[in-house]
Design goal:
A 6-stranded mixed beta sheet has the order 1-2-3-5-7-10, with helices on both faces. It has a 4-stranded mixed beta sheet with strand order 4-6-8-9. It is globular, with a radius of gyration of 19 Å. It has helices at about 30-45, 65-70, 75-80, 110-115, 145-150, 150-160, 165-170, 185-195, 200-215, 220-235, 235-245, and strands at about 5-10, 15-20, 50-55, 60, 95-100, 105, 120, 125-130, 165, 180. The protein is about 40% helix and about 15% strand.
Protein backbone atom coordinates (compact mmCIF):
# COMPACT_ATOMS: atom_id res chain seq x y z
CA UNK A 1 0.00 0.00 0.00
CA UNK A 2 2.92 2.35 0.72
CA UNK A 3 5.98 2.84 -1.47
CA UNK A 4 8.54 4.22 1.00
CA UNK A 5 7.48 2.93 4.43
CA UNK A 6 6.52 -0.41 6.00
CA UNK A 7 3.68 -0.34 8.46
CA UNK A 8 2.66 -2.84 11.17
CA UNK A 9 0.02 -2.82 13.87
CA UNK A 10 1.38 -4.91 16.74
CA UNK A 11 -0.65 -6.90 19.27
CA UNK A 12 1.01 -4.79 21.98
CA UNK A 13 -1.07 -1.77 20.81
CA UNK A 14 1.95 -0.25 19.08
CA UNK A 15 1.91 1.14 15.55
CA UNK A 16 5.31 0.51 13.97
CA UNK A 17 6.43 2.50 10.92
CA UNK A 18 9.74 1.68 9.22
CA UNK A 19 11.27 4.22 6.85
CA UNK A 20 12.18 2.12 3.83
CA UNK A 21 14.31 3.77 1.16
CA UNK A 22 17.51 1.70 1.62
CA UNK A 23 18.93 2.86 -1.72
CA UNK A 24 18.99 6.45 -0.40
CA UNK A 25 19.81 5.89 3.30
CA UNK A 26 16.12 6.62 4.03
CA UNK A 27 16.41 10.19 2.71
CA UNK A 28 13.12 11.95 3.36
CA UNK A 29 11.61 12.71 -0.03
CA UNK A 30 8.13 14.19 -0.51
CA UNK A 31 6.52 10.77 -0.99
CA UNK A 32 8.03 9.39 2.21
CA UNK A 33 6.97 12.40 4.29
CA UNK A 34 3.42 12.24 2.91
CA UNK A 35 3.21 8.47 3.52
CA UNK A 36 4.67 8.80 7.02
CA UNK A 37 2.12 11.44 8.02
CA UNK A 38 -0.76 9.44 6.50
CA UNK A 39 0.29 6.29 8.37
CA UNK A 40 0.68 8.19 11.66
CA UNK A 41 -2.74 9.80 11.24
CA UNK A 42 -4.30 6.44 10.44
CA UNK A 43 -2.74 4.81 13.52
CA UNK A 44 -3.65 7.82 15.67
CA UNK A 45 -7.32 7.26 14.87
CA UNK A 46 -7.10 3.50 15.57
CA UNK A 47 -8.44 2.55 19.05
CA UNK A 48 -6.22 -0.57 19.12
CA UNK A 49 -3.06 1.53 18.95
CA UNK A 50 -1.78 3.49 21.94
CA UNK A 51 1.74 4.49 20.88
CA UNK A 52 3.67 5.00 17.64
CA UNK A 53 7.24 3.93 16.88
CA UNK A 54 9.13 5.29 13.87
CA UNK A 55 12.33 3.49 12.93
CA UNK A 56 14.70 3.09 9.98
CA UNK A 57 17.31 0.41 9.31
CA UNK A 58 20.38 -0.57 11.34
CA UNK A 59 22.43 1.57 8.95
CA UNK A 60 20.24 4.65 8.68
CA UNK A 61 17.34 6.18 10.55
CA UNK A 62 17.39 8.86 7.84
CA UNK A 63 20.22 10.74 6.11
CA UNK A 64 18.16 13.92 5.90
CA UNK A 65 15.89 15.50 3.35
CA UNK A 66 16.38 14.11 -0.16
CA UNK A 67 19.16 16.30 -1.55
CA UNK A 68 18.58 15.09 -5.13
CA UNK A 69 14.94 16.17 -4.91
CA UNK A 70 15.88 19.51 -3.33
CA UNK A 71 18.85 20.40 -5.52
CA UNK A 72 16.89 22.23 -8.22
CA UNK A 73 14.41 23.98 -5.91
CA UNK A 74 13.94 27.74 -6.15
CA UNK A 75 12.58 30.18 -3.57
CA UNK A 76 9.33 30.25 -5.55
CA UNK A 77 9.02 26.45 -5.75
CA UNK A 78 9.78 26.28 -2.01
CA UNK A 79 7.18 28.96 -1.23
CA UNK A 80 4.47 27.64 -3.53
CA UNK A 81 5.11 23.90 -2.99
CA UNK A 82 5.88 24.48 0.71
CA UNK A 83 7.43 21.00 1.10
CA UNK A 84 8.16 21.47 4.80
CA UNK A 85 4.51 22.18 5.70
CA UNK A 86 3.79 18.41 5.74
CA UNK A 87 6.00 18.28 8.86
CA UNK A 88 3.44 20.39 10.76
CA UNK A 89 1.08 17.41 10.73
CA UNK A 90 3.37 15.63 13.20
CA UNK A 91 2.43 18.21 15.85
CA UNK A 92 -1.20 17.11 15.54
CA UNK A 93 -0.48 13.44 16.34
CA UNK A 94 -2.02 12.93 19.77
CA UNK A 95 -0.60 9.57 20.85
CA UNK A 96 3.07 9.40 21.88
CA UNK A 97 5.61 8.93 19.09
CA UNK A 98 8.94 7.21 19.79
CA UNK A 99 11.87 7.31 17.37
CA UNK A 100 14.04 4.17 17.40
CA UNK A 101 17.30 5.34 15.85
CA UNK A 102 20.27 3.35 14.52
CA UNK A 103 22.98 4.51 12.15
CA UNK A 104 22.92 7.94 10.59
CA UNK A 105 20.35 10.40 11.85
CA UNK A 106 21.27 13.55 9.95
CA UNK A 107 19.70 16.81 8.85
CA UNK A 108 15.96 16.28 8.41
CA UNK A 109 16.44 12.81 9.95
CA UNK A 110 17.67 14.37 13.20
CA UNK A 111 14.87 16.95 12.96
CA UNK A 112 12.31 14.16 12.53
CA UNK A 113 13.68 12.27 15.55
CA UNK A 114 13.59 15.49 17.63
CA UNK A 115 9.98 16.13 16.60
CA UNK A 116 9.09 12.75 18.17
CA UNK A 117 8.36 12.53 21.89
CA UNK A 118 11.28 10.27 22.86
CA UNK A 119 14.35 8.86 21.14
CA UNK A 120 15.71 5.36 21.77
CA UNK A 121 19.14 4.97 20.18
CA UNK A 122 21.37 2.11 19.11
CA UNK A 123 25.06 2.32 20.03
CA UNK A 124 25.94 3.04 16.39
CA UNK A 125 23.56 6.03 16.08
CA UNK A 126 25.07 9.32 14.94
CA UNK A 127 23.19 12.62 15.18
CA UNK A 128 24.13 15.64 13.10
CA UNK A 129 22.94 18.71 11.21
CA UNK A 130 25.26 18.74 8.16
CA UNK A 131 23.21 21.26 6.12
CA UNK A 132 26.04 23.80 6.34
CA UNK A 133 28.01 21.53 3.97
CA UNK A 134 25.26 22.06 1.38
CA UNK A 135 25.29 25.84 1.71
CA UNK A 136 22.02 25.92 3.68
CA UNK A 137 20.82 25.56 7.27
CA UNK A 138 18.39 23.16 9.00
CA UNK A 139 14.81 23.94 7.99
CA UNK A 140 12.60 21.75 10.19
CA UNK A 141 13.66 22.49 13.75
CA UNK A 142 17.41 21.88 13.69
CA UNK A 143 18.22 25.37 14.94
CA UNK A 144 15.24 25.54 17.33
CA UNK A 145 14.41 22.16 18.90
CA UNK A 146 18.06 21.11 18.96
CA UNK A 147 19.12 24.27 20.83
CA UNK A 148 16.34 23.85 23.40
CA UNK A 149 17.37 20.23 23.97
CA UNK A 150 21.18 20.25 23.96
CA UNK A 151 21.83 23.94 24.72
CA UNK A 152 23.44 26.69 22.71
CA UNK A 153 27.08 25.57 22.89
CA UNK A 154 26.57 22.10 21.40
CA UNK A 155 23.84 23.24 18.99
CA UNK A 156 26.10 25.96 17.58
CA UNK A 157 28.88 23.45 17.02
CA UNK A 158 26.53 20.99 15.32
CA UNK A 159 24.77 23.54 13.09
CA UNK A 160 27.76 25.77 12.27
CA UNK A 161 30.50 23.16 12.06
CA UNK A 162 28.78 19.81 11.34
CA UNK A 163 29.71 18.20 14.65
CA UNK A 164 28.09 14.78 14.95
CA UNK A 165 27.07 13.33 18.30
CA UNK A 166 27.64 9.68 19.12
CA UNK A 167 24.82 7.85 20.91
CA UNK A 168 26.46 8.16 24.36
CA UNK A 169 27.03 11.91 23.73
CA UNK A 170 23.42 12.30 22.63
CA UNK A 171 22.34 10.63 25.89
CA UNK A 172 24.69 12.86 27.89
CA UNK A 173 23.20 16.00 26.28
CA UNK A 174 19.58 14.87 26.81
CA UNK A 175 18.78 14.23 23.16
CA UNK A 176 18.05 10.52 23.63
CA UNK A 177 16.31 8.61 26.42
CA UNK A 178 18.27 5.33 26.27
CA UNK A 179 21.08 3.70 24.33
CA UNK A 180 21.05 -0.05 23.58
CA UNK A 181 22.99 -2.43 21.36
CA UNK A 182 22.16 -2.50 17.64
CA UNK A 183 20.68 -5.97 18.18
CA UNK A 184 18.25 -4.87 20.90
CA UNK A 185 17.41 -1.16 20.41
CA UNK A 186 14.23 -1.78 18.41
CA UNK A 187 12.91 -4.43 20.81
CA UNK A 188 13.61 -2.09 23.71
CA UNK A 189 11.82 0.78 21.95
CA UNK A 190 8.85 -1.49 21.24
CA UNK A 191 8.83 -2.64 24.88
CA UNK A 192 8.75 0.96 26.10
CA UNK A 193 6.05 1.83 23.55
CA UNK A 194 3.95 -1.16 24.66
CA UNK A 195 4.25 -0.04 28.28
CA UNK A 196 3.11 3.49 27.37
CA UNK A 197 0.32 2.04 25.22
CA UNK A 198 -0.99 0.06 28.21
CA UNK A 199 -1.55 3.22 30.30
CA UNK A 200 -4.69 5.36 30.68
CA UNK A 201 -5.20 6.62 27.09
CA UNK A 202 -6.76 10.01 27.78
CA UNK A 203 -4.27 10.88 30.52
CA UNK A 204 -1.42 9.89 28.17
CA UNK A 205 -2.70 12.24 25.45
CA UNK A 206 -3.16 15.10 27.87
CA UNK A 207 0.23 14.48 29.47
CA UNK A 208 1.98 14.60 26.07
CA UNK A 209 0.13 17.78 25.18
CA UNK A 210 1.04 19.48 28.46
CA UNK A 211 4.76 18.61 28.23
CA UNK A 212 4.87 19.89 24.63
CA UNK A 213 3.19 23.14 25.68
CA UNK A 214 6.41 23.95 27.58
CA UNK A 215 7.88 24.98 24.24
CA UNK A 216 5.03 27.34 23.40
CA UNK A 217 3.99 29.03 26.63
CA UNK A 218 5.42 31.07 29.46
CA UNK A 219 5.78 29.24 32.78
CA UNK A 220 2.64 30.85 34.20
CA UNK A 221 0.58 30.04 31.10
CA UNK A 222 1.91 26.48 31.12
CA UNK A 223 1.12 25.99 34.81
CA UNK A 224 -2.42 27.28 34.23
CA UNK A 225 -2.82 24.99 31.20
CA UNK A 226 -1.55 22.04 33.23
CA UNK A 227 -3.97 22.80 36.09
CA UNK A 228 -6.99 23.04 33.76
CA UNK A 229 -5.94 19.77 32.11
CA UNK A 230 -5.58 18.13 35.53
CA UNK A 231 -9.09 19.33 36.47
CA UNK A 232 -10.48 17.97 33.18
CA UNK A 233 -9.15 14.46 33.87
CA UNK A 234 -11.51 14.24 36.87
CA UNK A 235 -14.33 13.95 34.33
CA UNK A 236 -12.96 10.62 33.01
CA UNK A 237 -13.90 7.07 34.02
CA UNK A 238 -10.18 6.29 34.01
CA UNK A 239 -9.58 8.71 36.91
CA UNK A 240 -12.33 7.04 38.98
CA UNK A 241 -10.96 3.60 38.04
CA UNK A 242 -7.29 4.47 38.66
CA UNK A 243 -7.89 5.90 42.11
CA UNK A 244 -10.35 3.13 43.10
CA UNK A 245 -7.83 0.53 41.93
CA UNK A 246 -5.12 2.13 44.09
CA UNK A 247 -7.35 2.31 47.18
CA UNK A 248 -8.52 -1.31 46.73
CA UNK A 249 -5.02 -2.61 45.91
CA UNK A 250 -5.92 -4.06 42.49
CA UNK A 251 -4.69 -3.41 38.95
CA UNK A 252 -6.60 -0.70 37.06
CA UNK A 253 -8.58 -1.55 33.93
CA UNK A 254 -8.38 1.46 31.61
CA UNK A 255 -11.27 2.21 29.27
CA UNK A 256 -10.02 5.36 27.60
CA UNK A 257 -13.23 7.11 28.61
C1 LIG B 1 19.54 11.92 -1.21
C2 LIG B 1 21.09 10.49 -0.29
C3 LIG B 1 21.11 11.24 0.90
C4 LIG B 1 20.27 12.39 0.98
C5 LIG B 1 22.49 9.60 1.10
N1 LIG B 1 21.95 9.49 -0.11
N2 LIG B 1 22.00 10.67 1.74
N3 LIG B 1 20.30 10.82 -1.33
N4 LIG B 1 19.51 12.70 -0.10
N5 LIG B 1 20.17 13.14 2.08
C6 LIG B 1 22.22 8.46 -1.13
C7 LIG B 1 23.57 8.67 -1.79
O1 LIG B 1 23.48 9.62 -2.82
C8 LIG B 1 23.84 7.26 -2.32
O2 LIG B 1 23.08 7.02 -3.48
C9 LIG B 1 23.26 6.38 -1.23
O3 LIG B 1 22.33 7.19 -0.50
C10 LIG B 1 24.31 5.90 -0.24
O4 LIG B 1 25.01 7.02 0.22
P1 LIG B 1 26.62 7.10 0.26
O5 LIG B 1 26.99 8.52 0.38
O6 LIG B 1 27.20 6.35 -0.88
O7 LIG B 1 26.91 6.29 1.61
P2 LIG B 1 28.03 6.56 2.71
O8 LIG B 1 29.38 6.78 2.04
O9 LIG B 1 27.91 5.43 3.68
O10 LIG B 1 27.64 7.93 3.41
C11 LIG B 1 26.43 8.04 4.10
C12 LIG B 1 26.17 9.53 4.48
C13 LIG B 1 26.24 10.39 3.19
C14 LIG B 1 27.18 9.98 5.50
C15 LIG B 1 24.78 9.55 5.11
O11 LIG B 1 25.43 9.80 2.18
C16 LIG B 1 25.81 11.80 3.41
O12 LIG B 1 26.57 12.62 3.90
N6 LIG B 1 24.57 12.09 3.03
C17 LIG B 1 24.02 13.43 3.08
C18 LIG B 1 23.68 13.83 4.48
C19 LIG B 1 23.15 15.25 4.54
O13 LIG B 1 23.81 16.19 4.08
N7 LIG B 1 21.95 15.42 5.10
C20 LIG B 1 21.27 16.70 5.15
C21 LIG B 1 20.35 16.88 3.96
S1 LIG B 1 19.64 18.48 3.94
P3 LIG B 1 23.77 6.82 -4.93
O14 LIG B 1 22.62 6.47 -5.82
O15 LIG B 1 24.39 8.13 -5.24
O16 LIG B 1 24.76 5.72 -4.73
C22 LIG B 1 18.38 18.38 5.05
C23 LIG B 1 17.57 19.63 5.22
C24 LIG B 1 16.30 19.38 5.94
O17 LIG B 1 18.13 17.39 5.65
C25 LIG B 1 15.35 20.51 5.70
C26 LIG B 1 13.99 20.29 6.32
C27 LIG B 1 13.16 19.25 5.69
Amino acid sequence: MYETILVEKLASRVGLIRLNRPQAMNALNATLMRELMNALKEHDAEPDIGCHVITGSEKAFAAGADIKEMATATPVSMLVGDPISVWDELKKIRKPVLAAVAGVCLGGGCELAMACDMIIAAENAKFGQPEINLGVIPGAGGTQRLTRIVGKAIAMEMVLNNRWLTAPEAAQFGLVNHVYSVETYLDEALKLAAEIASRAPIAIRIAKDCVNKTYEMTLNEGLEYERRSFHFLFSTDDQTEGMDAFVNKRPAQWKGQ
